[in-house]
Write a structure and sequence with these properties.
Length: about 130
């Protein structure tokens, strides 16, 4: 089924100039990028974006990292995009992610794990709405 998913390249990916390479992977795989913008996040949007992680021990560290530079927010469309993009992204902890995945190839630590992708249809809808409505 053709789906849309939300992807964000995190500040570490932008600073390391990995944007082009990562976008290329999604295009090479056959996905369409249907929306794209660079944003500097603030506390208000981060609270909504990462609400589910509030109170966890890594939350403050995560929020300050996500404010350390712009992110590239994208909507990616294609066959089973939610599952297939997550497969390309790899495990949350880059040192556990398989080589050949984006985090496996470019990441080494958290919270700076290069990229985010929605984990379900509900998250995709919520995140697309949060970043691309208005
Ligand atoms: P992501 O899955 O995109 O969204 C939640 C983020 O929290 C995750 O990527 C990491 O950037 C960060 N994160 C998750 N677990 C940890 C952890 N144990 N320590 C630090 N950061 C984490």
């Amino acid at each position: 089924m053709i789906e849309r998913t939300f992807v964000a390249l995190k500040p570490d990916a932008i600073k390391r100039k990995l944007m082009g390479k990562i976008i290329q992977r999604f295009e090479d795989k056959g996905f369409n990028i249907v929306e794209m913008k660079m944003i500097l996040l603030d506390d208000i949007i981060l609270e909504q974006y990462y609400g589910e992680h509030k109170g966890k021990d890594f939350y403050d560290n995560l929020v300050s990292f996500m404010k350390s530079g712009s992110i590239l927010a994208m909507v990616i469309e294609g066959e089973d995009a939610i599952k297939n993009v997550r497969t390309m992204v790899g495990a949350t902890k880059p040192w556990e992610a398989e080589m050949g995945t984006i985090r496996g190839d470019y990441g080494l630590s958290t919270p700076n794990n290069i990229i985010h992708a929605s984990d379900s249809l509900e998250s995709a809808k919520r995140e697309i709405n949060l970043f691309f409505k208005n």
